[in-house]
Amino acid sequence: KIPTYDVQAVSINILISGTPGVGKSTHAAELASRIGLKYININDTAKEGDMYDGWDSELESKILNEDMILEEIGLLIKKGGCVVDYHSCDLFPKSWFKLVFVLRTDNTVLYDRLKERGYNEVKMKNNIECEIFQELLEEAREHFGIDSVIELFSNYVDDIEKNLEIMIATIKGLK
Ligand code: DAT
What we know:
Elements: E1 14-17, H1 24-35, E2 38-41, H2 42-49, E3 52-56, E4 61-64, H3 66-79, E5 82-85, E6 99-104, H4 107-116, H5 121-132, H6 135-144, E7 149-153, H7 157-174
Parallel strand pairs: 1-5, 1-6, 2-5, 6-7
Antiparallel strand pairs: 3-4
Helix pairs in contact: 1-7, 4-5
Bound molecules: 2'-deoxyadenosine-5'-diphosphate.
2'-deoxyadenosine-5'-diphosphate binds at residues 18, 20-26, 113, 154-157, 159-160.
């Protein structure tokens, strides 16, 4: 059963972080739609506004212009009630997020998801290592403080519903 909440009531901003492929977009979009938050996908924001600073040839990906991104979403963040989806977190001012969820996935599961995306060998290796060494969890804990960061596992389809329930309960608990 889908819980219903007072949409106007959520004024904090929430960050969903984790290695590419762990399920950030899946969770963030669903969380936003269930409790009436605004979903902001940083990669989509960059694409829509062409907010790049060049090309990383090793990773075969565009380098984001962080200043442009922060300026673009800053006004929405000020209003509150946003769910932001991005793999990294230390570009964001600490004051933006009271609550950060870091999704984690076992590396064999993650490997298959990234392979399906067609990532090249270097990109695969970097992302799997990033997950093994829990780099983004540590980054989030260091940047936002251990009490603001919640680690959740996203291996199986059933995890998604469980995680959403934990996320919603935590958000309600903070208000
Ligand atoms: P991200 O936004 O972190 O890159 P995603 O939401 O696009 O990840 O998910 C990557 C793929 O994995 C996508 O096909 C959905 C699937 N997926 C995500 N979370 C899952 C889970 N807990 N169980 C099974 N599949 C999942």
